[in-house]
Amino acid sequence: MNESKKIVIISDGTGKTAKRLMDSVIYQYRGQQVSYSLIEIYKEVRNKGQFDNVLKKIDDDYLVIVSIISDDLMKYIRKALDDRRILHLNVLEPMLNTMSKFLGVHPDYKPGILQIVDDRYYKKVDAIGFTVEHDDGMGKFINEADVILLGLSRTCKTPISVYLACNFGLKAANIPIIPNPHSKVQIRAKLAAISRDIIFGVLMQPEVLVRIREERARILSGDDPKKAYLESYFDISEIRQELRFCREFYDELGCETMDVTKRAIEEIAFDIINRLKRKGLAE
Predict the structure, then answer these.
(1) What percent of the chain clears pLDDT 90, i.e. is strictly above it?
(2) What does the buried/exposed string (b/e) look like for 112-140 if buried means 16 or more CB atoms within 10 Å of the residue's CB?
(3) In a domain, 283, yes or no
(4) Once rounded to an integer, what is the mean pLDDT over residues 254-277?
(5) CA distance 273 to 283
(6) Could you give the residue ranges of the DSSP H alpha helices within 13-112?
(7) What share of the chain is helix, strand, coil (3-state, %, to 5)?
(8) Both 98 and 124 in a single domain?
(9) Alpha carbon distance 41, 25 (integer Å)
(10) pLDDT attached to residue 115
(11) Which domain holds residue 180?
């Protein structure tokens, strides 16, 4: 077998783009008697000085795969590698040249954009996992939440939480309020170490909540929504008392409130985001 070929990747970001492309191409040679080693991925190389430090570590035995978006820096790198007769390839160049001809405009030449996209994607994935685990008062890491919703049953806490996670990457927890003193004690204990700035008390007009709960009761009980154990669930007098309990509890906690009656989930979510922004707690 031939001596192992040495490869390095130089990138102005993480090098993931160049690494993926290299792996795809190398795979086409899997049937050949060749060996290679990826010696190093040099990340976030964004100026001449950083590149010069890399250049000291390589010679003409290497293949240099470059993923650099800056035209000026790429010209400098190309000349330096050509002068030393080091084989090199900028994996972005063919695509950029062709795309510019097709679109009729030049690129922004901003390094690391893909990594920003990747980071945002994984942040959302983490947020969704957290939100699912901390739905309906569950979960053990509520101190890591970016936002916490409190509210009665059927006041849209879960869909709001999921929307915040999926669209804004916020770790959202929600806690149901059961109108009794023991529930107060439990919630207070759970929220003891958490800033009130990220806690929002959800409210809804009683007449609307009645209809929502009545429909829910019908689904749960089949054709007989008047079963005794569900009657109080959508009784308007009971609901008014529950809402009164919530308002008093929110005042005691010192948290903001929001009425979600007949509001779209995305409108509510943007309202929460804007409130967090005003406090410097969201981008």
Answers:
(1) 66
(2) beebeeeeeeeebeebbebbeebbebebe
(3) no
(4) 96
(5) 8
(6) 16-26, 48-55, 71-83, 93-103
(7) 55, 15, 30
(8) no
(9) 17
(10) 57
(11) 114-278
Q: Please name which of 25, 57, 120 lies closest in space to residue 10, comparing C-alpha atoms.
A: 57
Residues 232 and 130 in one domain: yes
Residue carrying structure tokens 């795809």: 24
Give the Cα-Cα-Cα angle 64, 42, 57 (nearest 5 degrees).
Answer: 65
Q: How is residue 229 written in tokens?
A: 């154990």
Strand partners, 89: 65
List, for residues 180-230, the tens digit of each pLDDT value. Answer: 999 999 999 999 999 999 999 999 999 999 999 988 888 877 666 456 567
266, 147, 283, 261: which is closest to 205 by C-alpha? 261
Q: Residue 272's domain is classified under what CATH number? A: 3.40.50
Number of domains, the chain: 2
Residues written for the chain: 283
Question: How far is Cα 100 from Cα 79, in angstroms, rounded to an integer?
Answer: 23
pLDDT in tens, 272-281: 999 999 999 9
* Helix-helix angle 157-168:113-133, to 10 degrees: 160
Q: What is the mean pLDDT of residues 137-147?
A: 95
Give me the torsion for CA of 77, 78, 81, 83, rounded to 10°.
Answer: -120
Q: How far is CA 15 from the centre of its chain?
A: 21
Q: What is the pTM (predicted TM-score) of this model?
A: 0.62
